[in-house]
Specification:
By secondary structure, this protein is of the alpha/beta class. The protein contains 17 helices and 13 strands.
């Protein structure tokens, strides 16, 4: 049986590794081992998500915590290298685009552990984003690149990546959604959190939006304006909560009537999202989920590494100043679900099949 290390560090990572953990566990060929780097250390950002997705506690918790990019990346490398040398895996799977993704991929490359990047090939073209550096560098050192959509394949091909390193497996975030859909539908309603039945859902966490007091103030002004017409529910990321409090903007949101709550587990968050009239976000995952669900999405970024959500879905890139008008236009337009190829809840099965093929193992009867 081949050991597979699955690296998780931040909230979206857990939603991506959970379906893969289950699919690997069903196969007789692989032993999945979950490793939590501790980059997100708030329980609502990690532990509760694993419980929602019925994944056991990580075998290894590196406890890295926050810090500057270089320090955090280096600490993850040091800690994971010790684990990988003591318990050498047959495969290493890193996901997404956070610092831990690149750090563990570099360890895998240097130790000659076959390394797979799940959600490879995504590009925003903006090297000012730390995540873009992580994506490009991880794809450069990984041995196998699992892409979610055709644009990922095209980006890698344009960078000269050989076709035999690329396998399109689809959007694994949607595996988690379909796996828990019944429990999402049964979760407490938004009304029990003080909004509804018609409301907008807000998520903000990127430094480009929340670390500048001036930009954050413009965002809060926009949210206050929107609140007058569409009640807003705002699960506040710990980073954002600290920035709002430091600038005194939390009180402005309260005066406007925006409903601020603490971060919630995955299933409850998805209950909020599935019932929302629109989402206001800077999250990559929410862009995909709203496209899949046919919910209007206003993304507070200058670019996106998920252009398929704009080309075929319901996503719009906005600024703080354009947000209120763009939201009004989005709500007036008809939105329809967009289901690109392999956005079907079975990406994890394709991942396991690819590992079986690449490892030369015989597929078990229950692996599919």
């Amino acid at each position: 049986m081949q050991r597979v290390h699955l690296i998780a560090a931040a909230r979206p990572n857990f939603m991506k590794v959970a379906p893969l953990w289950h699919a690997l566990s069903r196969s007789r060929a692989f032993e999945p081992v979950l490793i939590h780097t501790g980059q997100h250390y708030d329980p609502a950002m990690s532990d509760s998500i694993l419980a929602d997705l019925k994944v056991p506690a990580p075998r290894h918790h590196l406890g890295i915590g926050s810090g500057p990019h270089g320090e955090q990346t280096g600490r993850v490398m040091i800690a994971y290298e010790q684990v990988a040398m003591a318990e050498r895996p047959d495969w290493l799977v890193v996901v997404g685009d956070v610092n831990s993704t690149l750090a563990c991929a570099l360890v895998g490359a240097k130790l000659r552990i076959p390394t797979v990047h799940l959600e490879a090939g995504l590009r925003s073209g903006d090297r000012a984003m730390p995540e873009e550096i992580n994506r490009v560098a991880t794809d450069a050192v990984a041995d196998v690149l699992w892409t979610p959509s055709p644009d990922g394949d095209a980006n890698l091909a344009a960078e000269g990546v050989p076709a035999d390193r690329i396998t399109r497996v689809g959007n694994i975030m949607l595996d988690s959604f379909e796996m828990t859909r019944g429990r999402i539908d049964a979760a407490p309603s938004p009304e029990s959190f003080g909004v509804g039945p018609r409301y907008g859902l807000v998520t903000l966490h990127r430094p480009s939006n929340v670390d500048s007091p001036e930009r954050l103030r413009r965002l809060v002004d926009a949210l206050a304006e929107i609140q007058a017409d569409l009640p807003l529910l705002f699960p506040v990321h710990p980073r954002t909560a600290a920035r709002l409090e430091a600038a005194g903007l939390d009180r402005q949101l309260d005066r406007a009537g925006v409903r601020r709550i603490a971060p919630v587990p995955y299933i409850q968050f998805m209950r909020f999202l599935t019932g929302a009239a629109a989402a206001i976000t800077d999250s990559g995952g929410v862009q995909e989920e709203t496209t899949y669900l046919g919910i209007s999405c206003l993304t507070l970024r200058e670019n996106t590494e998920r252009p398929i959500t704009i080309e075929q879905g319901t996503n719009r890139l906005v600024t703080p100043d354009s947000l209120p008008g763009a939201l009004a236009a989005a709500l007036a337009a008809e939105s329809r679900p967009c289901r690109p190829e392999y956005w079907d809840g079975r990406a994890a099965e394709r991942c396991v099949a690819d590992l079986l093929r690449r490892s030369g193992a015989e597929p078990a009867a229950d692996a599919a």
